[in-house]
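Dear support,

I submitted the protein below through the web form. The confirmation email said the job was done, but the results page showed an empty box. After a refresh the structure appeared. I'm attaching both so you can tell me whether what I see now is the final result or a partial one.
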Amino acid sequence: MTGLLPLLRKPLVVALVLIVALLALGEALSPGFASPQQILRLLIVAALLGIVAAGQNLVILGGREGIDLSVGGIVSLSAIVAGNLMNGADSGIAPAIAGCIATGAFFGLVNGLGVTFLRIPPLVMTLGMLGVLQGLLVVIRQGIPSGRAAPSLSQFVTQPFLFGLPGIIWLWLCVGLLMAFLLHRTVFGHRIYSIGSNEEAAII
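What the results page shows now:
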């Protein structure tokens, strides 16, 4: 029992225990809640959020009130850009990816310039940008969704790809492994931790 205490203090182990407990509770209250199909649907949603969270993780570790509150707005706007560029055709996947990257890069650059040169606190800057993006979404689409995902992309997200799991889950796993390698095995990752711990000491 004593040997289990250090293991139970690890955040990942605690998270896994809580997930299992919540699934068991949900299954007891509503039979079928923890069925394989339902768990797969939850994993797909978790994969989409996890890929976004990977980038957010770098921002948070970097310190200086590091958190980007505009991510939700950027993702929503990028989804509209991608949907309209694809418009239900596989040939539009590459332009859609390029459009999403360009959209995120542009608003990320604006956030970065505001924080760096105008000295606006990151929380304030990104919160303001979220409001701008939400207003822009209303102006552009008036709250009405538009565009359609390409069939291949829909299959990648929802249909079995390898060992019965959709491609999006495998992509999430690859992103997680890449982030772990980046943060723990590269100079860049160590610098991020150093800056987040003490920016002045990291400069020295």
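Response: this is the final, complete result; the empty box was a page-load delay. The mean pLDDT is 85.
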